[in-house]
Amino acid sequence: MGSSARDLVLVDDVLLRILSLSDIPSVVLVGQTSRHFHNLAFSKQVWLALLSDLHARNFVDLIPGQRLHDLSTNELVDLAKRIVLGPRSWSSSHPSGSTLAQQIAVKANVYGGPGSLYWENCAHLLSGGQFCLFLKSKSLECWDLAQSKVVWIYQGNWPESWVTRFAIEVVEGGQKVIILVAVRVLAQPERENFVEVLNLDLSTGTSKTILSWRGPDSENDNSFSYCKICGDFGLLGFIDLDLPSQVILLQISTESCVILDMPKKYSIDLLPAHLILMRPSLLSDSLEIVIWMMQALVNSNSQGEIFTRIEDVAPAAVLTLPDPQSNAFYLSSHLSPLCEDSSILWILTSSLQPSSRGEGLAIHKWHISHPKSKPLTLHPISSKSFPDIVYPMPTGLRNVSFAGYMKYHDFIFSLAACHRDGFRVDLPHHGDNIQISPYSGTLVYSTREKIVVNYYE
Q1: 107: exposed, middle or buried (C-beta count within 10 Å: 0-12, 13-18, 19+)?
Q2: From what superkingdom does this record's organism come (predicted)?
Q3: What pTM does this model have?
Q4: Phi-psi label, residue 273: left if phi above 0, alpha if psi -120 to 50, beta otherwise
Q5: Which of 148, 165, 310, 326 has CB 3.0 to 4.6 Å from 182, enough for a Cys bridge?
Q6: Order of strands, edge to edge, in the sheet holding 256-261?
Q7: What residues does each domain of the chain span?
Q8: What is the CATH code of the structural domain delimited by 100-456?
Q9: What does the pLDDT look like over 311-321, one tens digit per residue?
Q10: Taking 50 as the threshold, does the pLDDT of residue 395 lie above it?
């Protein structure tokens, strides 16, 4: 081999190493420059490295038993496309429509009390695709889907209690999961509410409590309306009869807590180190997106007052939407697998009736950049209005995927495609709680006998 040939091999080795450490958009752009660079950019070495990194950062769901090393280059590229675009068969251009690739059904002791299938039983796939958390009969279990067995059961510190809500975040490359649990204690006379944060080791099935906090007492047995965790912070919605809506904000590392009094109508989510809120504008007949630094909200109780009006804390950013105030509105955010320190924000607003004033339906997609050392910025990606369409609004848009898919009854709707009609998915005997995995489009639900996980082509 001549020196020029050896130099070319050496250069290619260096380029492969550089591409393996790049992000997907950069690799795709390099692959468009020449045939030689295309061959390098779309080699298995590069895409195995890219997908391994995404898998370690909880963006890839694999079918139990599946390994990235066993996939071809095209299969690895298709896996990346699924993260960004959703299942291929969910596209309107797919000739066969929604197509089931594989189904896993594990037999579980599903609680079958009156009406329980429709609201109590809730299955949630952990990122990575190997484990599932299942809330049933007022208890919480972790299932190993490959082995079809329970590897962990939540054990509370109260003899008469039940789990009402939970949220999860997989950490340490899929080895552990942080679980935020909302607990209702039924013992008379106080009927207390508690919040716990647990660290579950998936390899051993053991957990340790890292935070336990007594929440406000309530007459309502289902006072926690939603639950989310993101990094060092947890968020729980709290409602009790005629009292104003409140949000419980926890900082796990410091065991700090603040209860925020909320506006009458709002939609809320978490970004890394930020809280994002959608509400009717206080100054005009429009909607606005308001973002706060989480630390500023936690520090708002520095005077010892646990209750804080969220309007009294200075926000980090405020964005006014062009839409007039709507009857219903939701927002949902997901970390972006394509850009570091950034998220995608989906916004859906809808009126109850079509209107010539342009109120109907509006769908917005935004990119949010939230680097640790720089100010947060927002940039619009797409926006579309349908004044003559009344869009079916779900009970919440927190179960929307990164690609913009959401479920309503037996239909899947695409916010990205802005289609008027969705497509039906066949989920026999399912209850109300159906999870769309945020980066794979996997559907997870329970029947009267099983936990079912559907993977689509």
Answers
A1: exposed
A2: Eukaryota
A3: 0.91
A4: left
A5: 165
A6: 224-230, 233-238, 246-251, 256-261, 307-309
A7: 3-85, 100-456
A8: 2.130.10.10
A9: 889 999 998 88
A10: no
